[in-house]
Amino acid sequence: MSRPLERRSEERLEATGVEGRRSAIVTAVRQRGFVTIEALAAQFGVTVQTIRRDLNELSAEGRLERYRGGGGLPSSVENIDYADRRVTLLPEKTRIGRLAASRIPSHCSVFINIGTTPEAVARELTRHDDLSIITNNLNVALSLAEATEFRIVVAGGTVRNRDGAVLGQLTCDTLSQFRVDVAVIGTSGIDADGALLDYDYEEVRATQTILAHARKTFLVADHSKFTRRPMVQVGRLDQIDTFFTDRPPPPEIALLLDRMGVTLAVADEVSEP
Hints:
Keywords: DNA-binding, Repressor, Transcription, Transcription regulation
Protein name: Transcriptional regulator, DeoR family
Domain HTH deoR-type: 18-73
Shape: elongated
GO molecular function, one term: DNA-binding transcription factor activity
InterPro entries: Carb_Metab_HTH_regulators, DeoR-like_C, DeoR_HTH, NagB/RpiA_transferase-like, Tscrpt_reg_HTH_DeoR_CS, WH-like_DNA-bd_sf, WH_DNA-bd_sf
């Protein structure tokens, strides 16, 4: 009877050690800007193959950039490809989407903006009744149109081919015609001072319009956004009513949330709605 328990304990210890090393790798990269695989292997006393696996995982989570020969800081000017973002941290995004959707009542109006985590929320809304969806995300509009009888309004504008985003002045003009009950927005990064950050100025303008025309705002973002620093500011945490994520945020972010009166909802593996 004790062997399975001992094995699970050993697995937890091993996982803790791996995460501890990977967090230390991220810290080293932040301090130095770029660190070679060989230097990291020597620093942590592991093989270069282990460091390569660590860098691949950290890159997939958006915590650093994987370069030939080492790891560096994430880009502040270019996001990860949409195809990669769709599969990165998918279980975590699904849990966030399920929890956020559980806080949205039937018979209301909802803004849903661009991003793979807002799309996860949209997938979980199919069991709701009588929703009005206003979106500048073609993926959201098409998936909900196929699965539901919701009223769906797609903002006009120019389609960004790589991810189905609809952007431009016409998009903002369309979004500004509505006053909705709940806005669901994503972001590409959250700075330590509470700034919400993204990469594309046109995308940011649409999100700012959504923020200005919603009675209540839900921010949905996985833990990798705590370590990313895009260069365009969308807004601030004090514009958010509830922040849905998959891990407790860093202490400085948790303190800001408490000070600003923002509700924190952590969709971890044991706190399903």
